[in-house]
Amino acid sequence: MKKIRLYIGVLCASLSLTLAQTSCTDYLDKAPDSDISDKDAFKDFQNFQGFTEELYNCIPEFDKGYWTNSWNWGEDELQNVGINYHMVYKIDQGDFWGWQSNHDGWQSGWMDRNGFNTGGDRFSHSLVPGCWYGIRKANLGLANIDNFVGTQEEKNLIMGQLYFFRGWFHFQLMQYFGGLPYIDKVLPADQELREPRLSYQECAEKAAEDLRKAADLLPVNWDNTTVGKNTLGKNQLRVTKIAALAYLGKDLLWAGSPLMNKVSTGNASYNQDFCKRAAEAFGEALAMVESGQTQFGLLPMKDYGRNFYSIDDNGKVPGQSADGSVTEAIFRGPLFNGDWNVTNWGLSKQFCAVNSDLSEGGVWSLPTANYVNYYGMANGLPLDDPQSGFDPTHPWKGRDPRFYNDIRFDGEKIFKSNDIAKHEVHTEAEISADPAKSIRYADLETGGMYRSVDKGSRTGYLLYKFIDNSCNKLDDGYGWSHHFLIHLPWMRLSDVYLMYAEAAAEAMGSANAKVGQCPLTALEAVNKVRARAGVDPVAAKYASTLDGFMSELRRERAVELAYEGHRFNDLRRWLLLDKYPYTIKTSQEFKRVKCDLEHPENNEVSGFTQKVILTRNFSEKHYWLPLKKSDVSIYPEFKQNPGW
């Protein structure tokens, strides 16, 4: 347990707030003169808040922790051949040990890094050590709360943050490793941890207690508090009542999901009690959102990309509307690099996988064809529904608008720059006769210029959800002058609507169920997310049964939250990770017939079929990550996960 003791048994000597070193100070400013000593750490709000805000620095940047990154470990994504050090490759091979730093020679993962340091750059932050360190720090703060002298509002704000992070850090550990000891007191540094592992649901109950306390103490909007007015307009990254309620609901929904219910009770179905309580927590948050009492809302589809990136906006942290009046990001971590255009160092070049010298990156994240097929039709029906209108000779016509936002397909215009001629593969005469042969347009048909197992797309598609269309070598959208920034949220409001729908439907056995304070039924919550995207409601033939509704709910989660890091944990908790077809990754094979360059969605193809690239051979043990051998060898009560 040496690693665990390092983080929960030893407090960092420096208690100064390090967020001021980052470029997110416009959103999470430290209070003036809040650097503190051990002696004065808890005496007043200025210092206690400075102590507390280090907890934000325990949150890793899962999307930017390394030069290039991997956070989608379901059946949703592939990387190019030859890239064998990222976690998605290791997961595909069944190597779940790969999350650990001693199994990560490149230190490219975001779960466990050597040299964890809350005051360091993005490379020095990782999830597991950050969670243990943060739990210790939250406990230390709560143990000293009686030493605080200040107003009740100030005390509530400090306690609310401490309870939130203690619950949040435990939840993050639980969802990957299962039930663990719940550390809710300060442990002496010289005392061995002897606490037994709790069941998942026992651990979730304790996290729920902390998150409930946090929700009761935190404000909806820090700008509306007396304290928050000191950093008015710079409080967007601070945890709120809505975030606490949303994570309370998520903690309970996860505890009630088939995997967690099975390991806790032996029953591999949903636990209705946990689901009902989850729906009540989500409903409490959504009732405030729906009545206009909060700053949170769904961004219009034209601004959908603002959830994930900013461009030509001085590095503004994504997650809200241009004027800041509407925020969709429920919870975001801080940025750890104050460098101008930090995303330019690798992440922004991870998606334009073009088989030519127009690709500046060497690692590409590619959407699998099997996953792209979850994007149904604009009429709301899945592709395989006989009434959907899907035509395999015109496979990109009439699709869900999020398909056109997230995915680039054959024939779409990729490069706008006029400086394209020297990069062309075909002659000027050939291009004049058939403009679609220009490398300006995505050539993703089987054998096309953009297709390659190592230097282009392996799957027949490109992923553009997190980049602007100009992010390529010629148009230079990720260049220094644009300060292009990708920063993905840990939770968005659309996720809360969908989790509420899942919890309410499973708790009450119907898509028409309404739980707690929420004014929406489960069906209405899903349809609200679809309406924002311009997709028709869930069809009556699916909504009329629980199984039918859940199949569409799961597909909706796959599409709305695509590539944001949720799929792996969803498949796990639904007990689908080792089930076909969730074990395969495919490419889309086809040949062009006609290409409409003005309206590529009308393109005609032939031979539209999928080809299996790989099959993941998982078993029951793969539902949980293995704990470190050094941790489980310390005392008998701290057992390794089964099969590892």
TrEMBL record:
It is found in: Cell outer membrane. Residues 104-250 form the SusD-like N-terminal domain. Its main location: membrane. Residues 355-644 form the RagB/SusD domain. One of its GO terms (cellular component) is cell outer membrane. Keywords: Cell outer membrane, Membrane, Signal. It holds the Pfam family SusD-like_3. Gene3D superfamilies: 1.25.40.390. Residues 1-22 form the signal peptide. The keyword Hydrolase does not apply. Coiled coil: none annotated. Belongs to the SusD family. This is RagB/SusD family nutrient uptake outer membrane protein.
